Input
Amino acid sequence: MINVAPLPLRTASVPRETAFSHMSRLAAANKVDLRDFGFELGIPFQRILNGERDMIRILALLGGTDHECLQHWSGTKLAGRRHELCGEIYPAKTIRSPEIRGCPICLKQDASSSERSPEHSMAIRGHWLVPHVTICLAHEHPLVPLWRETQLFARYDTVTQFRSIAPAIVAGEFDREIRELTDFDKWLETRLVDGPGNGWLDLHPLHAASTFCFLLGSARMRHETTAPSDVDPEDRWALLQMGYEVSRHGPKSITTALQRLQDLPGDPHQGPKAIYPVLYDRLSRDYADVPEYAPFRAILRDHLLETWPLNAGDDLLGEPVERRRLHSVRSASRETGIDPRRMRKMLESAGILNDVRHDAWAVFDADAAAPLLDSLTTLLPAKSFAEGLGMSRSQFDRLSEDGVLAPKLADTTTKNIWDPREGQAFIDSLLAGAEPLRQAQHGWEHISKSAARLKIRPGDIVKAIQQGRVRRVGNHSDFDGYKAIYVYHDEVSAALSDDGPAAMSLEIFAKTVGIGQPVFLNRLISNGHTTATLIRNPRTRAMQRYFAEVDSVQFHEKFYTYRTMSRAHGRSWQQMSALLAAADVYPFSPDGIDYGKLFLRAEVDSAVGYDCG
Output
């Protein structure tokens, strides 16, 4: 049993005060430096920050306050970079944010109700640490940033921090316009105080449920603005409410909201990121391997499979689609060469299509329609064939001259010699494993423009992609078909240009295979794990390391990056990451040297059961 006597000089804790705030004020009341205070009394400040129960109990006894309240509102450090606060689990980075927020009205009341100086009286409440808490329910005042500090000890020494801003708080300089409480605000407060209720969202961990509300609310902002990402951070509360008012009612309500977003301007070829901004990106990348988000990912995934004309190889929340389940009138028209208006009439007559939406979204079962579509497929003249693939006539002519597009029939007097299915297969082959592009940032060029810059034929670039010599291919969400295919120009230049050495610089090779920093590649070469070729730089005339063909082959025979293993195994990098973690396969790091996210090919292939032959 702990036997600690209360200190002669104490300061009363306020409701919901955190242990670090109370310790800082207690040290100040005893006129002792916070670090020395903890050292002398055997309660190191770091252990208080970690929420160690025995340390907080001693602190409470010294301060003459309730240790259960301090514990509940302070948070406890757990394994795996997690913290528990109010019975809920959070990622450490959210609870340990460098920014400390608070309600200035509460802080002014702290100062006015105490005889001590304001910086000694103002206390940080535990619920202010929860990122989705945006308002003080007692005063209907938004939480405002108080200070931002990256250094841990300084961040939580509240007396020192308040010393510089307390006069401004008392003077009302931190006050903001009050707003009405939302249903989300009230639900979150109840959850923190009383625990989960009986609603659908209460079936899920609080942080994940709240984050999903924010993500869905962000996507729903498409009803209000074409740029949801431009919403002011101070309006985060509105996005949380927009997501909560839908999510609280469960999966059916959520899928209805997802469908309404599809009814807004926008086509499937733009990709789910454009239709569900923020929501799709976060669930497909940031939270792809986080179990708490699996139920929300499942709702979005099922909805996409049931309503989107996804083709084999398309990205579905970070995983490639294995086969087409749904066709749209547009996709079927493109694959068969039948005019969309005629296609719709025939599908409706056959009882296959019952969807009044426009051609891009009017979907039907691909398997059920397969016999009809096969019977309707017709050869096209060059003009219709090129238009169906999103090519200009000049682009089509160049690719045809280069031999990468070939007619179905030769030596014939008819113009209808081009098979639309082969054309679509050509486009699909170039986009397999392509990186989604929202915009063509520096370095990305369309195939035709990259070829023009290098004074080479576009067919040369196409062949290089098909042969694996050009690996970075982008799929631009604003375009469809051939127009959407972009390449990373520096890689193309290194692979095909006659102006420079017939090799890639280390920087370009690193970008091509997905190594984060060229320094890792340089380190790999210097330590003898792979080879490079010394070639004179044509501009600087200096000898430098390049990756010639032989070096590239040797590298790929020995190593994988997430990008190259994803392509080799036909799985997303998120899936590969999970598989490797389960098999205890770790990045290549002999002698503890960091080479980035680089893996031995043999270990990866063995772990996922890959047939190297």
User: Anything to note?
Assistant: The chain has 32 helices and 20 strands. The two ends are 67 Å apart (CA to CA). The mean pLDDT is 88. The CA atoms of residues 227 and 424 lie 32 Å apart.
